[in-house]
Design brief:
Blueprint (H helix, E strand, L loop, with lengths): L17 H21 L9 H12 L9 E2 H11 L5 H10 L11 E4 L17 E4 L4 H4 L9 E3 L6 E3 L8 H5 L1 E4 L4 E4 L4 H13 L5 H7 L10 E3 L2 H9 L1 E7 L1 E7 L3 E8 L6 H13 L6 E6 L8 E5 L5 H11 L3 E7 L1 E4 L2 E4 L2 H42 L1 H10 L3 H12 L3 H9 L7 H25 L2 H19 L6 E3 L7 E8 L13 E2 L20 E6 L3 E6 L14 E2 L12 E7 L7 E6 L3 E6 L11 E2 L9 E6 L5 E6 L3 E6 L20 E2 L9 E7 L4 E6 L3 E6 L13 E2 L10 E7 L6 E6 L3 E6 L14 E2 L10 E7 L1 H4 L4 E8 L5 E7 L34
Parallel strand pairs: 8-17
Antiparallel strand pairs: 1-3, 2-3, 4-5, 6-7, 8-9, 9-14, 10-11, 11-13, 12-13, 15-16, 18-22, 18-40, 19-37, 20-21, 20-23, 21-26, 24-25, 24-27, 25-30, 28-29, 28-31, 29-34, 32-33, 32-35, 33-38, 36-37, 36-39, 40-41
Length: 868
């Protein structure tokens, strides 16, 4: 066996464990990328390469009022002095700071081809030219006044600023995007004027909260304009530093000859490539995933963006547009991560913290600037004091100078004779003879007095933090005045989900009859805060009329709703069947077999107005819908009913008031509710208190009862004969005792004593209770709270709507069809019915962008992630 002694380590070689070396080296690399490349500083909002480009252009004298210079020269200057890396990232950074579609306020004024929103690359740096933009001067202002720290460059031959003084809140107004090691930043741009207002507000109210700032900064302001849908993502971003902001293109629908329509896209979501978008739409048409498009072309020019999407004659523009939002980047998501360097450390920053750090930076800059100016003023004033003294004793000064052997002796003699400093004595020696003139002396005296005022002012400023903050506000207001502009991106407070109206049909026997107070079964899969609203029984060939809160009506045949829908499925998105506009919500749905002029509809609004309309007015409704009522500002349609043979209607409010009045066959014909044209408004039906609103309206039958159900699950049935008749426009009488336990009135229906009458109670979370009407107590007293008709509900669930039927309504095999208006904040939903029970499949969705349409899901299935 051969053995050998261990080899002693050579001189200068130190043994290191490989895992330790890899760990240390990786951490060094990661911190270098984080601090020196990828992330912006919270103070000036710039990455190192951007800061070096701007500083190099400043040193080269490339001011906004100077001529443009070749970008190749700028890149060479940056590489040779400050940024020892490839020329490609330097030029890419320069190009981005000059692109009007990338930066809300470009910092570089470019001349030549700097790329386009179609993804075209910029021309080579030898062809393009650039200079500093006027607003970039605000980033570099006062940099020569010792306002920031400088450090040695890569070869210790020059100095470069560690941060720019930055009067401009650049990080917020231009945003930032960067991927470091294990972290990334993605800040949206904002409007300068709004950010300036917020900076001043933080100075005035240091204890303000995010809600106060959102009033000043409603949201990001993208350079490509467009829309922001919903405010929750904005709130999350400003509160936590992370959020999901939904962006949407600006589109218009135009009518063209031949009864056709076209969709015009004039503004895109931020960072969307227009050429790729057009190609994506064309591919969807070829694959027949989006129907109704006959042609698409890009007509954009120097005047602005214009993408034209022409539709076939039978296509509905709103439906096609919704499908494009779903499948393409016309609706995109900006996932915000407000990450920046704070004292060299990466931190996720809420809005207020970011504004506060900027104000602190400006305080430091103004303090250092003031100290520098103060010292310079004191030095100059010190010289002036010596000159003025010399002028007073000029004869003696001349004698001392003439009798001195040389300049050095003369300076020393002056210092000894008049107690002067070396600088003062040297200034006297350097003084020109013209200073002896009376006018020159007066100028020196005036300069001395002005300097005294400047010194006093700077000393007062440095001694009072409030004055420094006022100086910041003054500079910030000037920024807004000089560079502020109007907001480009519009914010629609309606979330994308708020227009989700689902419709489905299932057999009536899907729901078994239960006893009063039952828990119910799940009627359909819902999202959080979704709610169902109504149930109707129709035949397959009946027409369903959908009335929206904006006073419009849309038609849909029952057979157009696909069948084979399971009990728990959500159904089909209604916007794929009827063209509901963005600001509309479905409020009522009526089944109509044959519209007749003799039949009359009654429409009621939330603020208590009513209107009569002949059913014949709703024949031949075009698919794009019709206006059925002119609404007052702030009002909306809440209920529509077929009056049949009834002469009276009853209106019920959230606070439990009921108003019963006659609408036709009145003794005085002038009191009749005369049918009006579709475009007309209504008349007052009930006078409301300031905090009340109408929740329901129904025709009155001779043997009818008024069924009222509260959100807390309490219900009661009261004979309508117990209600006094009033003239239209009164306050009505109390019909339900509302308290904390019962909650406000959720819904009301007029029911009869017919055998087999059943009540469907639908909760906000889609629990459906089917009970017999006879299980609901009939009480002659109007001022009661009734009995519990629905229990065992979840703590945050509540009654959303009520529907009533008799066995005759569906004894021939009818089935239920349901629509759900879903919202993340306030939900409304509707259920209809049809004579067949086929499942409705929602359109599939394999697009990588955030979409407004969800697929059908089983009850326990989680929605798939729609974000890229």
């Amino acid at each position: 066996m051969v053995t050998s002694a261990p080899v002693p380590p050579s001189r200068g070689i130190r043994p290191i464990r490989i895992e330790e070396e890899m760990r240390n080296s990786y951490l060094s690399y990661a911190m270098s990328v984080i601090v020196s490349r990828a992330l912006p500083d919270v103070r000036d909002g710039l990455k190192p390469v951007q800061r070096r480009i701007l500083y190099a252009m400043h040193e080269m004298g490339m001011r906004p009022n100077q001529a443009h210079r070749k970008c190749a020269r700028i890149v060479g200057e940056v590489l040779g002095k400050y940024h020892p890396h490839s020329d490609t990232p330097v030029y890419d950074a320069l190009v981005r700071m000059a692109q009007t579609f990338s930066m809300r306020y470009p910092l570089i004024d470019g001349q030549g081809n700097f790329g386009s929103v179609d993804g075209d690359p910029p021309a080579a740096m030898r062809y393009t030219e650039a200079r500093l933009a006027a607003i970039a001067e605000e980033l570099l202002a006062d940099i020569d006044l010792n306002t920031v720290d400088f450090s040695l460059n890569f070869d210790d031959s020059l100095h470069e600023p560690q941060v720019l003084p930055s009067r401009l809140p650049n990080l917020l107004i231009n945003g930032a995007t960067g991927i470091a090691v294990g972290m990334a930043t993605n800040l949206p741009p904002h409007n300068l004027g709004e950010i300036c207002d917020a900076v001043c507000h933080v100075i005035d109210q240091p204890n303000c909260v995010t809600e106060d700032l959102i009033k000043l900064i409603p949201g990001p302001d993208f350079p490509t304009s467009g829309y922001i849908r919903g405010t929750q993502g904005i709130i999350d971003t400003y509160t936590t530093g992370r959020g999901r902001i939904v962006m949407e293109a600006k589109t218009e629908i135009e009518e063209i000859r031949g009864g056709r329509q076209r969709i015009i896209v004039t503004e895109l979501p931020y960072q969307v490539n227009k050429a790729n978008l057009v190609e994506k739409i064309a591919q969807l048409v070829r694959d027949k995933r989006v129907e109704g498009i006959s042609d698409i072309r890009d007509e954009s020019d120097r005047q602005g963006m214009r993408v034209v999407i022409e539709l076939r004659r039978d296509a509905q523009a709103n439906i096609v547009r919704n499908n494009l939002y779903r499948h393409t980047a016309l609706r995109s998501t900006f996932n915000t991560i407000m990450l920046a360097l704070v004292a060299g450390q990466p931190q996720v920053l809420p809005l207020k913290r970011m504004l506060t750090l900027f104000v602190e930076h400006r305080q430091e800059v103004i303090r250092r600037r003031s100290e520098h100016l103060l010292q310079r003023a004191r030095d100059r004033d010190h010289i002036l004091e010596g000159l003025l003294l010399a002028l007073d004793v000029m004869d003696q000064v001349i004698v001392i100078i003439r009798t001195s052997d040389d300049a050095e002796a003369a300076r020393t003699n002056l210092m000894d004779e008049f107690d002067l400093s070396q600088a003062q004595a040297q200034a006297i020696l350097d003084m020109q003879l013209r200073r002896l003139a009376a006018l020159e002396r007066e100028r020196l005296q005036n300069e001395h007095e002005e300097l005294q005022k400047t010194i006093a002012s700077l000393e007062a400023l440095l001694g009072d933090t409030a004055k420094i903050l006022n100086e910041i506000k003054k500079e910030t207001r000037k920024l807004k005045k000089d560079f502020g502009d109007a907001r480009r991106t519009e914010i629609d407070p309606m979330e994308v989900g708020e227009q989700r109206v689902y419709i489905k049909r299932v057999p009536c026997d899907t729901y078994r009859t239960q006893n009063r107070g039952g828990k119910g079964v799940r009627g359909m899969t819902t999202r959080e805060d979704d709610a169902l609203m109504d149930l109707v029984v129709v035949d397959t060939h009946d027409t369903l009329l959908f009335f929206t809160n904006r006073g419009r009506v849309y038609p849909l045949k029952a057979y157009q709703i696909q069948g084979d829908t399971s009990r728990t499925s959500r159904g089909t998105l209604l916007v794929n069947l009827i063209p509901i506009a963005r600001n509309e919500q479905v409020q009522a749905m009526l089944p109509v077999k044959n519209a007749r002029d003799s039949a009359m509809l009654i429409l009621a609004t939330r603020l208590g107005e009513v209107k009569a309309l002949k059913e014949g007015e709703l024949t031949n409704i075009r698919p794009s819908g019709l206006i059925v009522m002119d609404l007052e500002d702030g009002d909306e349609l809440v209920s529509v009913a077929q009056i049949g043979d009834a002469d009276e209607i009853v209106m019920i409010t959230e606070k439990g008031q009921a108003m019963l009045f006659q609408v036709r066959n009145c003794e005085d014909p002038r009191k009749n509710l005369t049918p009006r044209s579709r475009s007309a408004g209504g008349v007052r039906g009930i006078r409301l208190s300031s905090d009340d609103k109408v929740v329901g309206m129904a025709p009155v039958t001779s043997d009818g009862h008024l069924l009222v159900v509260s959100q807390g699950g309490y219900g009661k049935s009261t004979p309508l004969k117990n209600y006094p008749r009033h003239g239209r426009g009164g306050q009505g009488v109390r019909t339900f005792r509302v308290n904390d336990k019962t909650g406000p009135v959720a819904a009301s229906r007029v029911v009869t004593d017919d055998e087999g009458q059943e009540v469907f109670i639908i909760s906000a979370k889609a629990q459906v209770v089917r009970i017999n009407l006879e299980d609901v107590r009939v009480t002659n007293s109007r001022y009661t709270q009734g009995v519990i008709v629905w229990r065992d509900r979840e703590p945050d669930d509540y009654v959303a709507s009520v529907a009533c039927f008799t066995e005759n309504d569906y004894s021939t095999g009818g089935s239920l069809s349901s629509d759900t208006v879903a919202s993340q904040t306030e939900s409304h939903s509707m259920n209809g019915s049809s004579s067949d029970g086929h499942q409705i499949e929602a359109p599939s969705d394999d697009d990588t962008y955030a979409n407004s349409v969800e697929e059908d899901m089983d009850e326990n299935e989680e929605p798939e992630n729609k974000e890229e």
